[in-house]
Amino acid sequence: MELRIGNGYDVHALAEGLPMWLCGIRIESAKGFVAHSDGDVAIHALCDALLGALALGDIGRLFPDTDPTWKGVDSKILLERVVHLVHTGGWKISNVDITIALQRPKLASRILEMRQTLAPILGIGVEAVSVKATTTERLGFVGRGEGCEVWASTIIFK
Ligand code: MG
Fold first, then answer.
1. With the CA atoms of 65, 10, 99 and 94 taken in that order, what torsion angle do they form, in degrees rounded to the nearest 10?
2. Ligand 1 center to residue 13 CA distance, Å?
3. CATH number of the structural domain spanning residue 122
4. Contact 14, 30 (CB under 8 A)
């Protein structure tokens, strides 16, 4: 069996009155993400982890923000396309692990829904989709509520 590991990282700025999407679900929040797409920073990091495992560059190369096709796009569509690339290469996803750093709102009550949203897109069970959320104890740009940071890891195999 051949194994590959991938990791991804993304940051989006927060601004008043914009929608907040994380791991494919809408989060109630006074602030949302400044972005060309729907701003789902967690899915963007996950796409980069999968693309990293494939050594196929990054999400910005695949879906450039200069391309009007991707304006306001549901990031789940971007993830579907990346997963298609994984499967086209003959790979399967073993698991994914996502860490979201966000000062507020608290995400604990929405984590299961996030996992249940991502699992069918990834073609794996909910038990292989980990989503974790943390604050940064009010430190740094995340702590000041200026942005959100996400790290994602994956292992793929064939
Ligand atoms: Mg992004």
1. 60
2. 10
3. 3.30.1330.50
4. no
Cα of 78 to ligand 1 centre, how many Å? 11
Provide the pLDDT for residue 55: 97
The closest alpha carbon to 102, from 4, 21, 2, 47, belongs to 21
**Residues of the domain holding 85:** 3-157
- Supply the pTM of this predicted model: 0.97
What is the Å distance from ligand 1's center to 1 Cα? Answer: 32
Q: How many CB atoms lie within 10 A of CB 154?
A: 26
Peptide bond into 120 cis (omega under 30): no
| Tens of pLDDT, residues 102-133 | 999 999 999 999 999 999 999 999 999 999 99
- What is the tens place of the pLDDT at every residue in 49-103? 999 999 999 998 988 888 888 888 899 999 999 999 999 999 999 999 999 999 9
For residues 80 and 111, give the distance between their C-alpha atoms in angstroms, rounded to a whole number.
Answer: 20
Q: How many domains, in total, are found in the chain?
A: 1
